[in-house]
Amino acid sequence: MTVTTEAPVKETPDAGGVPSFQVTMRLRRFNPESDTEPRWEDHTLTMHGTDRVLDALHKIKWEIDGSLTFRRSCAHGICGSDAMRINGRNRLACKTLLKDLPLDKPISVEPIKGLAVMKDLVVDMEPFYAAYKSIMPFLITTGNDPSRERRQSPEERERFDDTTKCILCAACTTSCPVYWSDGQYFGPQAIVGAHRFIFDSRDEGAEERLEILNDREGVWRCRTTFNCTDACPRGIEVTKAIQEVKQALLFRRV
Amino acid sequence: MAATTIAAPRSPRSPRSPRRMRGRTNTELYAWLFMRVSGVLLMVLVFGHLFVNLMVGEGINALDFAFVAGKWADPFWQVWDLLMLWLAMIHGSNGLRTIINDYAERDQLRMWLKVGLYTAAAITIVLGTLVIFTFDPCPADAAAELLPSFCPAP
Ligand code: FES
């Protein structure tokens, strides 16, 4: 261990030499039992360079205010529970490092937009899941012969590889301005979900799914703003997937 | 063992999601396609129009009543301007329609905005078409030096 004489003696040593800093978290709080309107609440914390927004939320919940409510499960970007609006952009709290954000200003954390807030950062995800369900997110085939595998070449698999990465966190759908203003719109996630099956060579439900997305509230509502591609924590090219569905519709019908 | 055929788990016509029952047409598809196609055509038409009116020959100095009257005596320019008028009006109105659909939340408001939009578009298209085809390049009581050269001398 090296000790430098200039280093100020601290009560709590840095975690393994990781730099620490002060950060102000500006949270959008709403308690349906006592508030009529959401309100902002600031907490200033000492965090480390390895900490994520989720760690800051944990620190607040565990050490300062246990009533802070948010969803998280895996804490490693897999389950898609903790999508929230961080500094105005939809991100997963567990994949956003504090040190990557501008620390001289407070970091704002809000619930994702376009879905009803239930408490603090928790929103009602039902309309989002309903849109996903309506595109029939399961393999549709004819017959029920289980005697052999449904084979697929690597190229055929590659065709829809990007959209298989979706974790249903709702970051894309709730970043879409059309979805904010019109809750009937299927939203980018449902289209990504449909894309995953439409372009799967084993699936036979493409026609039906395309018909569903040809709806007034379907793919044609997309304004190609790329908010969804920008928001996706898995790096899915959401807008591209939507354009591919539009193309599939166009060349089947016209 | 004969493979029994199982129907798709939920047929698309099931009444469970009422929002899908509204109109199973390709209207939105055609509207979207129209925007793309008319956009490309308008680029050619508008820039062609600007080029011919402002840059060819004497350029902008040649622009007067006689110039316009001369153009509209030619069926080629009649069709050109007619296409430009119709495509631009429909393209623009459809764009405004989608904006109204996106941002006007109240049903009543949305309906009235669209009624206003369609009326305005229809009036402009009808009037414009009328002008293009009934235009008189040689009005009787106009000063001779303003008229195109092919007008009969008064
Ligand atoms: S907590 Fe699972 S994705 Fe962030």
Concise overview:
The complex is a heterodimer of chains A (254) and B (154). By secondary structure, chain A is α+β, with helices and mostly antiparallel strands. Chain A has eight helices and seven strands.
List keywords for this structure.
heterodimer, A: about 250 residues, alpha+beta, Ubiquitin-like (UB roll), Fumarate Reductase Iron-sulfur Protein, Chain B, domain 2, 2 domains, 5-stranded mixed beta sheet, two-stranded antiparallel sheet, 8 helices, 7 strands, about 30% helix, elongated, disordered N terminus, B: about 150 residues, mainly alpha, 3 helical TM bundles of succinate and fumarate reductases, 4 helices, about 60% helix, binds FE2/S2 (inorganic) cluster
Q: Which SSEs are present, and which pair or pack?
A:
The complex is a heterodimer of chains A (254) and B (154).
Chain A: E1 20-29, E2 39-48, H1 53-64, E3 83-86, E4 89-92, E5 107-110, E6 117-119, E7 122-123, H2 126-134, H3 154-158, H4 177-181, H5 187-198, H6 206-213, H7 227-231, H8 238-253
Parallel strand pairs in A: 1-5
Antiparallel strand pairs in A: 1-2, 3-4, 3-5, 6-7
Helix pairs in contact in A: 2-5, 5-6, 5-8
Chain B: H1 27-54, H2 65-72, H3 75-103, H4 107-134
The complex binds FE2/S2 (inorganic) cluster.
- Looking at CATH, the homologous superfamily of the largest domain in chain A is Alpha-helical ferredoxin
Q: What's the main sheet of chain A like?
A: 5 strands, mixed
- Judged by helices, strands and strand pairing, the structural class of chain B is mainly alpha
Neighbour order of strands in the largest sheet of chain A:
2-1-5-3-4
> Which ligands occur here?
FE2/S2 (inorganic) cluster
Average pLDDT, all residues of chain B = 83
- How many structural domains in the coordinates of chain B? 1
Query: CATH homologous superfamily of chain B?
Result: Fumarate reductase/succinate dehydrogenase, transmembrane subunit
How large is the radius of gyration of chain A?
A: 22 Å
What's the alpha carbon Rg of chain B, rounded to whole Å?
25 Å
Q: Which structural class best describes the helix and strand composition of chain A? A: alpha+beta
